[in-house]
Amino acid sequence: MKFTTKAIHSGYARNKEDGAVIPPLHLTTTFEFGNQGGYYDGSVSVEEWEKQKEIKFNNNYKHFDYARTVNPTRLILESTMAALDGNRFGLAYSSGSAALANIVALLKQDEVILFSSDAYGGTYRFIVKVAGAQGLQYRIVDLTDPAQTEAALKQGAVRIIWVETPTNPLLKVVDIEVLATLAKTYGALLVVDNTFASPALQQPAALGADIVAYSTTKYINGHSDSIGGMLTLSDETLYARLKFLQNAIGAILSPFDSWLTLRGLKTLDLRMQRHQQNAVTIADMLVKHSKIRSVYFPGLFTGEQGAIVKKQMKGPGGMISFEIKEQYDAGRFIKALTLIPLAESLGGIESLLDHPASMTHGSIPREERLKIGLTDGLMRLSVGIEDAEDLVGDLLNALDKV
After folding, report:
1. Which residue of 104, 319, 383, 395 shows the fewest CB atoms closer than 10 Å?
2. What is the pLDDT of residues 242-298, one digit of tens each?
């Protein structure tokens, strides 16, 4: 099946009792026990366990026990996301940060997590200020540089590499195949945060990633009405460990948020096409504008970065970062926008403008931000699916007023 067909038809068979085409919302917290529990206890293979707990709408859900452990609505979402990533298993969490916390919980004492210097502020906040404060060892390098990455790996003890590509907010791209080769050489797991690209534009598992991660809050849900996270993978042993952690930690995606995310997921490919079309139009306008100093957009990248985009992405995505020249008042620009609000998050149907230094990346010390080029004047634009002419007009009007 092709991508959108998978998004619509994976993970759910029409209800045999009433023929419902759309998966129902299961709000129950518990289930009557039958001859099988809904949790993995190691007594059978994970593959057999998956078969045992398949959703059977005509047998009173006897293979489920407690909704923290497994819920029918969440399971449909997990199965669908795994299918879209080309993986066997999926795990849904209450947020992208919760997914990261479960990944970090895989680490044993003296094991190290390696992540990018150009990382989402929440990733930095959790690894450095929460897990790091409890003794987690971490290293931060520019993962777009294979030499720097290998030097960090040669120091030993790196168990997990966590990488975003494109990165947030500078939209750098990392060669996933190269990083996967390095990870395997040095015995590390490669986790690729695919939030900005989505599975519609990038397939990290096919390029060698061990685990694919998402904030489903963004493009996966796509409607700015649900917070969630997701991991997909194919390794059975690793899945069993993560499934145990998901249940033990308990930061699971609620049934209603699972249902909302499933609803949004069905139109992901269509939405991404419009996001990209609009982003290309806006980036072309910004890069020519006399008041703009720099524009960061994968569709404009040349050289090595441009080659990576062409190699591993189906398109440049819907995110643009840009800097207004220092002599102009960026604050006045923000206030002059009428269609595009100043707000955190991204990937929804509506366009949103973010000021990373004071918002999404405010937890990163200023000196660290400046080292990677994240200046106080940087703006991050999540391009929505509105009419491109209206968005361009709003931006030009605001730029005229600075």
Report:
1. 104
2. 999 999 999 999 999 999 999 999 999 999 999 999 999 999 999 999 999 999 999
Judge whether 271 counts as a catalytic residue: no
From the candidates 40, 53, 65, 68, give the one annotated as an active-site residue: 68
Which region among 35-39, 114-118, 163-167 has the lowest average model confidence (pLDDT)?
35-39
Query: Catalytic residue at 120?
Result: yes
18 is catalytic: no
Q: Does CATH number 3.40.50.2000 belong to domain 269-400?
A: no
Query: Which position among 120, 124, 186, 296 bears the catalytic label?
Result: 120
Q: Is 100 within 8 Å of 162 (Cβ atoms)? A: yes
68 is known as an active-site residue? yes
| Reported pTM | 0.91
Q: How far apart are CA 325 and CA 310, in angstroms?
A: 30
* Catalytic residue (one of 74, 88, 172, 218): 218
Query: Tokens standing for 127?
Result: 């690894």
Confirm or reject CATH 3.40.640.10 for domain 3-265, answering yes or no. yes
Residue 304: exposed, middle, or buried by beta-carbon count in 10 A (0-12, 13-18, 19+)?
A: exposed
pLDDT digits (tens, 9 = 90+) for 24-70: 899 999 877 654 545 555 666 766 666 555 534 333 334 677 899 88
DSSP 9: H
Please choose, from the candidates 261, 243, 367, the residue with its C-alpha nearest in 3D space to the C-alpha of residue 7.
Answer: 261
pLDDT band at 335 (very low <50, low <70, confident <90, very high): very high
Spans of all domains in the chain? 3-265, 269-400
Mean pLDDT of the chain: 90
**Measured distance CA(165)–CA(177) in Å, rounded:** 12
